[in-house]
Hints:
Layout: H1 14-18, E1 31-35, H2 43-52, E2 54-60, H3 66-83, E3 88-92, E4 98-100, E5 108-110, E6 115-119, E7 130-132, H4 138-141, E8 147-152, E9 163-171, E10 174-179, E11 183-185, E12 190-194, H5 206-219, E13 223-226, H6 232-243, E14 252-257, H7 260-264, H8 266-272, E15 275-278, H9 280-286, H10 292-306, E16 310-313, H11 327-339, E17 343-346, H12 348-351, H13 356-373, H14 376-387, H15 393-407, E18 412-417, H16 421-428, E19 435-439, E20 443-445, E21 450-452, H17 455-460, E22 467-471, H18 482-498, E23 507-514, E24 517-524
Parallel strand pairs: 1-2, 1-17, 2-3, 3-13, 6-7, 13-14, 14-15, 15-16, 16-17, 18-19, 18-23, 19-22
Antiparallel strand pairs: 4-12, 5-11, 6-10, 8-9, 8-12, 9-10, 20-21, 23-24
Amino acid sequence: MQSTHLLLEEPIRMASILEPSKPSFFPAMTKIVGTLGPKSRSVEVISACLNAGMSVARFDFSWGDIEYHQETLDNLKAAIKSTKKLCAVMLDTVGPELQVVNKSEKAISLEANAYVVLTPDQEKEASSELLPINFTNLSKAVKPGDTIFIGQYLFTGSETTSVWLEVFELKGDDVVCIIKNSATLAGSLFTLHISQIHIDLPTLTEADKSVISTWAVRNKIDFLSLSYTRHAEDVRQAREFLSKLGDLSQTQIFAKIENIEGLTHFDEILQEADGIILSRGNLGIDLPPEKVFLFQKAAVYKCNMAGKPAVVTRVVDSMTDNLRPTRAEATDVANAILDGSDAILLGAETLRGLYPVETISIVGRICYEAEKVFNQDLYFKKTVKYVGEPMSHLESIASSAVRAAIKVKASVIICFTSSGRAARLIAKYRPTMPVLSVVIPRLKTNQLKWSFTGAFEARQSLIVRGLFPMLADPRHPAESTSATNESVLKVALDHGKASGLIKSHDRVVVCQKVGDASVVKIIELED
Ligand SMILES: Nc1ncnc2c1ncn2[C@@H]1O[C@H](COP(=O)(O)OP(=O)(O)O)[C@@H](O)[C@H]1O
Ligand SMILES: C=C(OP(=O)(O)O)C(=O)O
Ligand SMILES: [K+]
Ligand SMILES: [Mg+2]
């Protein structure tokens, strides 16, 4: 795949930086999650997003109702059908999010050094002197001197609509604040972030539960993005809730780490969750700026070693209004990939940004370039050392498959999988070539009817760096005899060739079971 192999740890010839990268059928191994909203909900735009490389669509229920999101999702389904690109669905909860209630939607201007009162009385009109909020216990949670941030929904950090307040005094349920910077709150929704304060609200609110038991069940969502996860118990409770909702027992839970409380309990949360979202939007204001990178590196490393996907947010905020990212943003995206992230999550950029499609494609291109210089060798050794010995049989097979594929310069690894576990383990070792994960459906029953597994498993790999799923025909029996393996393998190879992933005379590494034995084999194609 890589003819000119550059490694950052070695001296790179400056001129080679200018050499254009070969066009590739898979723009990047890194996955892109796009938040769908006003600027990205028509079949046309969603189709363009899919073609540009979006493989997970996020539906953020902080804004918009069930009907709105259903319409968008129906459009997504139409786009998937017409583009023939797979896309997973992620529901993002509201959680304990504090919001300013601005019923009239009129712009509110705030002057530096003036006072403004935050009140739980939602009947009041929002004004320059008074901001009604959706939380009754604010005056019990904060004390004079605390910092409160108010920003536009999906604030980018670069707009002039965000304001910092300092708590001055508490008056009953009201909180009197000094305005630290002049700003005009414009937009339909403002979220409130209070630095390093525990908000006494459940992580999964009643409103979230109602959306999950209706919209999410109806649409069999692949991922639940659990906003403001603060403890491992939050994930356990969400899992317990999903387990009673039929198909949603298969939904994966991605814990969003958005504040210091979540950061403090990171290790336990990672054990319970299926993946982590590094929510740098909120966390970036909860943490001192000089500490944000350290959290990112530590968290991504832990996710990598656990073999669980790490998703990084808020990367190209300025592309919400501009066609090009800032230099710092472009470099930051690449660094997230070099750190080991699986996916990049776009928020405002795709939801209300002017250039959703261009943003996806630029981010994809940066990821692609970063992957090329990712030091896989170093990463592989680090991971093997971390896992230690004895290794589980499956992990040993998976890591060997990656090593073999690199040694023989295979163009692709084909992994048979039912639960998806084997494919994820291969991805954990960050192969430099794509992994075609051939999901073999299994027949299952709930005592009422029979159905096939596989669809969730296939879509859930769309957030894992390097995995490209393919759902095998359920008529192929799942028992792993050589004969059935051969026929499924042929279909996979044909699929790989049709998508341009595999060419004649390529070498391919295959990871499958024959009888009870897991095998890694290397095949060389003829034509
Ligand atoms: N239907 C199948 N045919 C052949 N090999 C398979 C099949 N399903 C899984 N494998 C192989 O079996 C091993 C376990 O894979 P995994 O997906 O973890 O299996 P399971 O779904 O049984 O937990 C891997 O080496 C994988 O490539
Ligand atoms: C993605 C984030 O949260 P949300 O978009 O849900 O506010 C974030 O804080 O980075
Ligand atoms: K949210
Ligand atoms: Mg957030």
